[in-house]
Specification:
single chain; alpha/beta; eight-stranded parallel beta sheet; binds N-[3-({4-[(3-aminopropyl)amino]butyl}amino)propyl]acetamide; binds zinc ion
Length: 348
């Protein structure tokens, strides 16, 4: 399987995040993808290529508002000029409920475009986020060129990012951007996004909530006990034309492999019923037992099984890297997952 990777992810390397009231070293570290890349090369999963052609911003604007993109581009410089801490942009006041008037104040803007305090912006963040989206777009293009499966080694991740909101270490929704590309450039009619990160992909849910062409299926830790807390409940089923095309499967804390795999089987049944032209897997590995911000108890042997079951769909499959913070185990878990997939396909 081809992996698409860009070293520009390194431009996003914030010094801290504010989590549960503490300023801490970010869990979302550049080493994550370097370790995955090493394992992919060592275990000979397949060739690694860089994003191809020029990035066309229109491909990103199909998902994200122009004012949001412009915010991301200028957030750091304007913040520093206005006297914000040059270490990183982080909101101090969030625009919530009725307090959502617009603002031009560079110290206030982060609170308009963020939903948490864990997603700092530094000088290179926008470029890194664009590169990550470019990785997803290149991978989507390869699917259109009849590559049966591609792994987009994205960083920063994407599934928490909404049309005009960053959060959960995410700025641009790479999976959603790939889905829109497949529909608009490739003429695909139906897509299924299967999100197996431990956190609910609130951004992806928002983006496709009223659409019936893109099914969003997510298995995640119960939002009553874990992030993102305010979204991801089972009764969020889509709206309007999209009713029935959003499905959340929340699982309890400490969910194990047996529980996770039976949820995966349910999700895969729904994916089959949708009859998609392509499956996009939002692949997070924070379900691993040792993950420092996880909460499930999956062991490394779970990932090849997950890959195998997804392979049985026998559909074009685009894997998009999301979370996973047990850095030392990431290479093993990702490669186990991708190998499980590859070894069980009639087409590579
Ligand atoms: C892409 C992705 O995986 N983003 C995740 C962002 C999660 N940030 C908040 C984590 C909250 C962890 N809570 C731990 C509670 C103590 N067990
Ligand atoms: Zn996650």
């Amino acid at each position: 399987m081809i992996t698409v990777y860009s070293e520009d992810h390194r431009l996003h390397h914030p010094p801290h995040e504010l989590l549960d009231g503490s300023l801490i070293t970010p869990y979302e570290d550049p080493q994550r993808v370097e370790i995955i890349l090493d394992a992919i090369l060592r275990q000979e999963i397949g060739p690694v290529i860089q994003p191809q052609a020029l990035l066309d911003l229109d491909d990103i604007r199909r998902v994200h508002h122009t004012d949001y993109l412009s915010y991301l581009e200028h957030a750091y410089t304007s913040w520093v000029e206005a006297g914000g801490n040059p270490k990183a942009v982080l909101p101090s006041a969030l625009a919530v409920r009725w307090m959502n008037r617009g603002t031009k104040n560079p110290l206030a803007l982060p609170g308009y475009y963020s939903f948490d305090t864990s997603t700092p912006i530094v000088a290179g963040t926008y470029q890194a986020a664009l590169a990550s989206a470019h990785v997803a777009l290149t991978s989507a293009e390869m699917i259109l060129q009849r590559e049966p499966s591609v792994y987009a080694l994205c960083r920063p991740p994407g599934h928490h990012a909404g049309v005009n909101l960053c959060g959960g270490y995410c700025f641009l929704n790479n999976a959603a951007i790939a889905a829109e590309y497949l529909i608009h450039k490739g003429g695909l009619s139906r897509i299924a996004i299967l999100d197996i990160d431990i956190h609910h992909g609130n951004g992806t849910q928002q983006i496709f909530y009223e659409r019936s062409d893109v099914l969003y299926m997510s298995i995640h830790i119960d939002p009553q006990i874990e992030y993102p807390y305010f979204s991801g409940f089972a009764d969020e089923e889509g709206a309007g034309e999209g009713f029935g095309y959003n499905r959340n499967i929340p699982l309890p804390q400490n969910a194990d492999q047996t529980l996770f795999l039976s949820a995966l089987d349910q999700a895969l049944d729904d994916v089959r019923k949708h009859e998609p032209d392509c499956v996009i897997v939002s692949a997070g590995f924070d379900t691993y037992i040792e993950d420092p911000i996880g909460g499930f108890t999956l062991t490394p042997d779970a990932y090849p099984i997950m890959g195998t079951r997804i392979a049985q769909l026998q559909l074009p499959t685009l894997f998009v890297q999301e979370g996973g913070y047990a850095i030392q185990a990431l290479g093993t878990n990702v490669c186990g997952f991708l190998s499980g997939f590859q070894n069980n396909r009639s087409v590579a």
